[in-house]
């Protein structure tokens, strides 16, 4: 399955359904990779239709029909922000449940599946929360991370043996961070005071 927002960062998709969560997080604008995929009705609607259809087909679930409804993109953008906070460990506890619909179904091997229903935005949100729950249960959730480089913050799946990765691309983002740290150390040795963040 193709994950266009993730592939533009030249990142391998996360395994299984966690790739859908990663794909949503990677719709944000991050120069020089591209703009916000969900910025307008045309590009956001196209992405939403394509991703829900492809995800439904890959899972063997019925997907949403018709066109995205008014409010679907707003719902998906809000979900993206909640997920970014959750992945980065900055999410606030929420006592009120999210209004999504999941129905139990059986796959070909007789395993229970949580099948999302609703409009494109509702379907995507239900599917994403189901995938988060499954990833938290199977232990893969902690490997989905946001790149530590402040100018990037793309979502990547940490495949390192000890789960210690912090950059989506060590050569690009890691080198930028190391160069900043090296310059800061040189300035410090020279006695130059540099404001935090530079």
Task: Give the helices and strands, then pairings.
Blueprint (H helix, E strand, L loop, with lengths): L3 H4 L10 H8 L15 H19 L12 H16 L13 E6 L5 E6 L2 H19 L5 E3 L8 E3 L12 H21 L8
Antiparallel strand pairs: 1-2, 3-4
Report on the architecture of this protein.
By secondary structure, the chain is mostly helical. It is 44% helix and 9% strand. It is built from 6 helices and 4 strands, in the order ααααββαββα. The strands form 2 sheets. Strands 1-2 form a two-stranded antiparallel sheet. The protein has a two-stranded antiparallel ribbon with strand order 3-4. α3 packs across α5 and α4 packs parallel to α5. It is globular, with a radius of gyration of 19 Å.
Q: Could you give a short description of this structure?
A:
With 198 residues, the chain is mainly alpha-helical. The chain has six helices and four strands.
Question: Which key phrases capture this entry?
Answer:
single chain; 198 residues; mainly alpha; two-stranded antiparallel sheet; two-stranded antiparallel ribbon; 6 helices; globular
Basic shape: globular
SS content category: mainly alpha
**What's the N-to-C terminus distance?**
40 Å
Tell me, rounded to a whole number, the average pLDDT: 87
Radius of gyration in whole Å, from Cα? 19 Å
Question: How are the strands of the biggest sheet laid out side by side?
Answer: 1-2
Major sheet details = 2 strands, antiparallel
Helix residue percentage? 40-55%
- State which percent range the strand residues make up: 5-15%
State the total count of DSSP E strands.
Answer: 4
Order of helices and strands: HHHHEEHEEH
Low-confidence stretches: none
Number of helices: 6
């Amino acid at each position: 399955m193709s994950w266009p927002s993730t592939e533009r960062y030249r990142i391998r998709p996360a395994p299984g359904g966690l790739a859908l969560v990663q794909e949503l997080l990677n719709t944000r604008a991050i120069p020089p990779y591209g703009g916000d995929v969900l910025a307008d009705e045309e590009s956001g609607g196209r992405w939403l239709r394509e991703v829900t259809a492809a995800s439904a087909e890959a899972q063997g679930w019925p997907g949403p029909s018709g066109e995205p409804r008014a409010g679907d993109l707003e719902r998906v953008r809000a979900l993206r922000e909640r997920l970014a906070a959750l992945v980065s460990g900055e999410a606030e506890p929420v006592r009120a449940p999210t209004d999504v619909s999941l129905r139990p179904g059986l796959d070909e091997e007789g395993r229970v599946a949580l099948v999302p229903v609703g409009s494109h935005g509702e379907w995507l949100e239900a599917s994403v929360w189901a995938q988060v729950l499954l990833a938290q249960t199977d232990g893969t959730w902690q490997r989905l991370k946001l790149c530590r480089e402040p100018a990037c913050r793309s979502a990547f799946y940490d495949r390192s043996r000890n789960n210690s990765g912090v950059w989506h691309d060590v050569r690009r983002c890691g080198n930028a961070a190391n160069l900043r740290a090296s310059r800061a150390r040189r300035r410090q040795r020279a006695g130059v005071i540099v404001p935090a963040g530079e």
